[in-house]
Design brief:
GO biological process, one term: phosphatidic acid biosynthetic process
Number of helices: 9
Order of helices and strands: HHEEHEHEHEHEHEHEEH
Oligomer: single chain
Helix content: 25-40%
Biased composition (Basic residues): 284-298
Number of strands: 9
Domain Phospholipid/glycerol acyltransferase: 81-193
Radius of gyration: 22 Å
Protein name: 1-acyl-sn-glycerol-3-phosphate acyltransferase
Region (Disordered): 271-308
Distance between the termini: 11 Å
Length: 308
Amino acid sequence: MPTSPCGPGCIESVDQVSGARMLLRLTGIAGVLFSYPVVHVCTPARSRSRVQRRYARMLLRCLGIRLRIIDNGQDGYGAGALVVTGHIGWTDIVALAAVQPVGFVARADMIDWPLLGGLARLMRVIPIERERLRELPEVVGALAERLRSGDSVVVFPEGTTWCGRAYGTMRPALFQSAIDAGAPVQPVRLRYLDREETQCTVPGFVGVDTFASSARRVLATRGMTVEITLEPVEEPGEDRRELARRCERAVRGAELHHGHGWIEATTTRVQDPETAAVAEPAVRRPRRRLLPGRRHRSTGAQAVSHAE
């Protein structure tokens, strides 16, 4: 099962707004979420994409998050594209929908979340149960069918959330849908920045976080920007593992550091899961006999807490 060692120690606080500003943001979010279903039904089908994008951008503004899109000459994700990116938190879904209306493969319990659950249903989220891996072929099949129909769908191949400074390996399973459908793959680099343009971990939905605690932290933050960079499109090819590695290189660029052993994440040092999986077992040294009257002194490595 994909797990992330990121936890509360990865999240550092930044400038915060007043309680009155938080209340104003909550009021705006309620207005957006309650009005959208009505507007969606009343809008002609040919115009719904524009309305969905506009509402996603309004929701970002109500959350206090600015949007910056670096498209490298592209105009959105294109039709029928598998969009792949790293996963930081629930705000990723709003940010990615603000570029272009898309579907998502997301955790199944998101349908029951307050506020975002109704939005997830309207966006036709494809639910995935992380604990039921036998259902994965059905998810891949449903995803391939959506791609063949011309829908663009976002997947988070890491399989879990990370803090944004540290990240995991992109698992190849969901890439099979693009190969089956012959669909282009759009790698997306997603980052959250604070007022000083430093990478920000506030949106990280990690460790013991609940939706309520995460939402409260995001709503209280001032001056946050989400930066979305559309990297060049990748052709699906025939090997999902090779496709996953190509997309991982595109998304991480110069930051790609699998194989270095440790990833610095704010105040926390987390072990790179790829190197941990292949680490050689420690060699047991023969125990030396101690002279009478002397105590054995043990040595140990610094412990690092690992929260899922």
